[in-house]
Backbone:
């Protein structure tokens, strides 16, 4: 027992991730924390998406189950778990059974390398970003096998569309990622693929890669932002599950628990690709202006923001509690909303404790940036009409791919220029100026 | 490029990992050729390829493992499945599986296996008279996992130690030839 406590404590002073430190206990704890956090995020996302979409369309959205429909995701989850689990008669049983698990595994495994902070990651790999791209590309296998194993027309068409779409957009996505990786090599001996080091390089260079080599960084980010929506099969690229054409696409024949696995995988894949974008272009866990506004005072000021955010959310809940109808029927809902606000405020207060404050800052900024992307996903769904398949392929192969190639070449040239500038061009120019002076 | 050998952590690559992964690969390989359903074969092949990627990880080659997952499991096999899905299964199930070259196959497999065993067990003598197999069990250096990608880049592109650039580019030319060949075969008039 004493040995165990010592083993657990031995990690606490370390400045490495549990994976890098080789501490199995903390690695397990981190895995569980990420898994739980992710599940909560998916549940929250489910509610937020329905609410935000509804408000964009001037509706109220879920209002009945719990105050402002807050318990709706839980009711949905219960409904899905209790539903009859149907396997179609003509389906390929084994493949039908395995497919949802492939998708879920691919979507969850990538979080092994997602850096929520310099030490807040399960592990750090030398091939971090490559691992993320590779494993998340495995989810297409699950989708294809799901569509095929259903032995039905709509799922098969959905699976065909999905595989074509994901393979095409992976190319453009890869090119955008490579251009960001090129930027990591500036001003140091070599570049890096490690997720944690990519963020640290952004801090060293004093700029998010989004604004590096203006406008090249922004173009790379834009390519990635389009490709990542296509990769996760979301609107306006949701052809694999286009409900007006294919009922539900590749998961038409799935019901109950298996369908909820697809749902879980879709949302966690969205969070995963958003974390790639945040890590590569938006400075990962770094708070705004870590170099410009540095020093203990600014650190302290920024470390209050997580707590203040939660307090603000709590206050909003209390404000809406006061606005609840005063009818006796709404009594339980009013109490529930007040309790929810109290929980949020309590979390906010806990985040002001110095020990917690120092540790959650990076996680908060990372999550906040990812949350921005999640809002964008919902916003896209609320505004853009769905692409036709030929338009989709045109955007992928004729717009994004050539742009990505040109971008890669331009980034390489620019990166070379800034290195060559001092070594070649300045001496040549000085020599030329000297020559002019001699002539005249 | 000289990578610093690690002395601290022993490698995690225990034999048990290897046996497990090798078993998965062999079973997957057998399933690939025995399944009548082409999609099942493709899925077995994907399992084999993923186990192979894990083997690369055991050999401290994370970059090769990552490329293996992206290219083979994520890219090529998806295209395989894409084509196979459109085959009518009812007809494929009725096709008789045949193999007219099983005698030659067994001979070739036996020869290859014998070669492996011979290489692994042969004792060679170096100049100093030390006897060892070509896989010495002691005195091996293992390298920092965290430098693998950079090491490969140096071997390929470094001005001084980059010796594999030409071979690498020739290999990509070979792929280009294959692509052109496929286009020529598929289209009579280009």
Residues:
């Amino acid at each position: 027992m004493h040995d165990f406590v010592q083993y657990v404590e031995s990690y606490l002073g370390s400045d490495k991730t549990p994976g890098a430190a080789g501490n199995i206990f903390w690695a397990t704890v981190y895995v569980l924390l990420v898994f739980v956090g992710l599940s909560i995020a998916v549940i929250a996302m489910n509610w937020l998406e329905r609410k935000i979409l509804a408000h964009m369309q001037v509706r109220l959205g879920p209002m009945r189950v719990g105050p402002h429909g807050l318990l709706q995701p839980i009711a949905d989850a219960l409904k899905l778990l209790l539903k009859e689990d149907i396997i179609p008669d003509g389906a390929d049983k084994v493949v039908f059974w395995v497919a949802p698990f492939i998708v879920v595994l691919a979507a969850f495994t990538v979080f092994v390398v997602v850096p929520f902070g310099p030490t807040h990651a399960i592990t750090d790999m030398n091939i971090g970003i490559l691992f993320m791209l590779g494993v998340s590309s495995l989810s297409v296998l699950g989708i294809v096998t799901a569509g095929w194993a259903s032995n039905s027309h709509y799922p098969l068409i959905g699976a065909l569309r999905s595989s074509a779409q994901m393979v095409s957009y992976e190319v453009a996505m890869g090119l955008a990622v490579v251009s960001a990786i090129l930027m990591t090599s500036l001003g140091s001996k070599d570049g890096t693929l490690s997720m944690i080091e990519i963020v640290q390089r952004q801090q060293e260079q004093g700029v998010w890669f989004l604004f590096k080599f203006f406008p090249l960084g922004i173009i790379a980010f834009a390519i990635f932002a389009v490709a990542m929506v296509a990769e996760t099969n979301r609107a306006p690229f949701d052809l694999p599950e286009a409900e007006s054409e294919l009922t539900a696409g590749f998961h038409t024949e799935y019901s109950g628990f298996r369908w909820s696995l697809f749902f879980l995988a879709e949302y966690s894949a969205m969070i995963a690709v958003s974390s790639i974008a945040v890590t590569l272009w938006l400075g990962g866990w770094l708070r705004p202006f870590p170099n410009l506004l540095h020093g203990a005072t600014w650190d302290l000021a920024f470390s209050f923001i997580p707590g203040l955010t939660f307090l603000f959310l709590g206050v909003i809940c209390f404000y809406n509690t006061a606005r609840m109808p005063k009818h006796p029927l709404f009594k339980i809902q009013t109490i529930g909303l007040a309790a929810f606000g109290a929980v949020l405020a309590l979390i906010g207060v806990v985040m002001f404790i110095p020990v917690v404050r120092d540790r959650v800052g990076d996680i908060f900024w990372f999550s906040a940036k990812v949350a921005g992307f999640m809002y964008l996903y919902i916003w896209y769904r609320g505004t853009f009409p769905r692409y036709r398949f030929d338009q989709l392929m045109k955007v992928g192969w004729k717009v994004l791919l050539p742009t990505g190639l040109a971008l890669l070449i331009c980034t390489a040239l620019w990166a070379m220029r800034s290195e060559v500038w001092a070594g070649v061009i300045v001496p040549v120019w000085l020599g030329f100026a000297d020559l002019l002076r001699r002539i005249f | 490029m000289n990578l610093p050998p690690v002395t601290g952590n022993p490698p995690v690559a225990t034999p048990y990992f290897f046996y497990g992964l090798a078993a998965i690969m062999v079973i997957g390989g057998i399933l690939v050729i025995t399944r009548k359903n082409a999609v099942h074969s493709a899925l077995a092949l994907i399992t084999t390829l993923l186990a192979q990627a894990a083997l690369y990880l055991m050999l401290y080659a994370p970059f090769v493992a990552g490329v293996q997952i992206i290219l083979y499991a994520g890219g090529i096999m998806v295209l395989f499945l894409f084509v196979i899905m459109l085959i009518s299964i009812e007809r494929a199930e009725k096709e008789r599986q045949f193999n007219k070259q099983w005698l030659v196959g067994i001979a070739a497999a036996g020869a290859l296996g014998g070669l492996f065993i011979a290489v692994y067990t042969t004792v060679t003598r170096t100049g100093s008279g030390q006897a060892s197999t070509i896989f010495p069990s002691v005195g091996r250096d293992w390298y920092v996992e965290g430098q693998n990608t950079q090491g490969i880049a140096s071997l390929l592109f470094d001005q001084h130690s980059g010796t594999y650039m030409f071979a690498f580019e020739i290999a990509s030319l070979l792929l280009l030839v294959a692509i052109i060949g496929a286009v020529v075969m598929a289209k009579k008039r280009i």
